[in-house]
Amino acid sequence: MPYQLVIDHAVNAIRAADSRTLSAGLILGSGLGGFADTLENRVTVDYTSIQDFPVSKVEGHQNRFVIGDADGLTYLVMQGRFHYYEGYPPQMLGIGVRIMADLGIKTVVLTNAAGAVNPTFQAGQLMMITDHINYSGMNPLIGDNSARYGTRFPDMSTVYDHGIITAVLSRAKDARLPLQRGVYGMLSGPSFETPAEIRMFGRLGIDAVGMSTVPEAIVAKHAGLRVVGMSLLTNMAAGIESEPLSHEDVNRIAALAAEDATKVLRLILKAVDEA
Asked: Which residue is catalytic, options 24, 78, 100, 113?
């Protein structure tokens, strides 16, 4: 099944379900899907109802689109994303962003659960992504270029919108929310990192690591969209503390930090609206 046909099926399904104008799109990572449930006037479209649409089998991903309102504006939210480690090809990982682009969305907010590499960070804090390092060994733009979205060789000098980052950090400080800023590193997964890898990543300037988000950011930048990224730091990365890592702990810490995450996402959406 050609990727563009899957995108077209999804766009048609979402438009058939709801005709509101969409102000931004959000992709919610592990344990962060609850934000969509805070929106008003919600309409949902299950991934399984869309012809040939992929689903995530990872715990914490609800596999549906949610259209809903916040502060008088309407947003499209993906409760669940697909991962390289699930066996999906790189080109499939950014289709959610291209769906948003085809629906007229100009800004995407990408979130994830991540492990903190920076020893000054703490589990349960949030981090605005200022830049990324793609250590996954793949790129979602490999293959024929889709000129309808962007150029063959897109510039990645400034992927994440620094004006929005600055505004959100200032407002979070005023609200006493635990918000950091830093560089996100992506690995393919599904195994967690080794302590030696984490030491290397720290020397490379990586502040947090995870297994998603970068493909979507690349595809969004390729399409000329404004990109905002946020990580929920669910654990200290391997070797920083003595406890072993597990996905169950990731979801547990994400649940504990859900209220702060929702508050920061609201600050992000306000900054997006004002930018």
From this structure: 113
What's the pLDDT at 268? 98
What is the SS3 assignment for 238? strand
Q: Is 183 left (phi over 0), alpha (psi -120 to 50) or beta?
A: beta
How many beta carbons lie within 10 A of that of residue 196, not counting itself? 10
Catalytic residue among 23, 30, 112, 231: 30
Q: How far apart are CA 87 and CA 76, in angstroms?
A: 26
Can the peptide bond before residue 190 be classed as cis, meaning omega within 30 degrees of 0?
Answer: yes
- Active site annotation includes 49: no
Which of 212, 220, 222, 236 is flagged as catalytic? 212
Burial call 161-173: b when 16+ CB within 10 Å, e when fewer? beebbebbbebbe
Task: Catalytic residue, from 247, 251, 255, 258: name it.
Answer: 247
Question: What CATH number does the domain containing 184 carry?
Answer: 3.40.50.1580
Give me the residues paired with residue 184 across strands: 132, 208
Distance (Å, whole) CA 90 – CA 78: 18
Q: Name the domain count of the chain.
A: 1
| 36 given a catalytic annotation | no
The H or E element spanning position 273 is helix 258-274
Residue 17's domain comprises 3-274
List, in order, residues 6 or more apart from 158 with CB less than 8 Å away: none
C-alpha closest to that of 183 among 100, 106, 114? 114
pLDDT attached to residue 242? 63
Query: What pLDDT was estimated at residue 86?
Result: 93
Of 30-34, 201-205, 209-213, the least confident: 30-34
162 flagged as catalytic: no
